[in-house]
Amino acid sequence: MTGKKSGFLGLFNQNYPGNNVVFLHCVIHQDALCKSALNMKPVLDAVVKLINTIRSRGLTHRQFRDFLQSVQSEYSDVLYYTKVRWLSAGCVFERVWQLKDDIVSSFHEKQCSAECEMLEDTEWLSDFAFSQIFFVI
User: Fold this and answer.
1) Which of 21, 35, 77, 91 has the lowest CB atom count within 10 Å?
2) How many CB atoms lie within 10 A of CB 41?
């Protein structure tokens, strides 16, 4: 399907000569190489620590869920991260990104802003947003 002579690219170049179609092989592998070159472990560790802070104690977890319900959030909870499932990081990053404002509000309401100070740091948020793109893809 993607061969240079008999695949789509070859047929396209035969029918439309003079165009500048670029052949990219295995975009997924290029994404994996980019992930390995970037150091996303500190961002992942910070997000996992934040989630564990929310979910580690039953009372804190219930209060957080009640807070999300009171502000009528789209989501009712944060997700746990597991290393076993490779899709887990993408789902966790996406959920925390969607709930970041609610997480900050919840921690400020409880006067525990030290746990979520990274969600107010613009440099860390830019790293988090960039990491989210690679984990979600």
Assistant:
1) 21
2) 9
User: Helix 41-55 vs helix 88-109: angle between axes, to the nearest 10 degrees?
Assistant: 60
Q: Tell me which amino acid residue 33 is.
A: L
Q: Measured between alpha carbons, how far is 94 from 74 in angstroms, rounded to an integer?
A: 13
Among 123, 61, 131, CA closest to 89 = 131
Whole-number Å distance between alpha carbons of 70 and 76: 10
60 vs 131: which has the higher pLDDT = 60
Same domain, 8 and 57: no
**If pLDDT is split at 50, 70 and 90, which confidence band does 125 have?**
confident
Q: Is residue 102 part of a domain?
A: yes
DSSP for residue 17: T
Range of the structural domain that residue 15 is part of: 1-27
Residues 76, 113, single domain; the answer is yes
Q: What is the pTM of this model?
A: 0.66
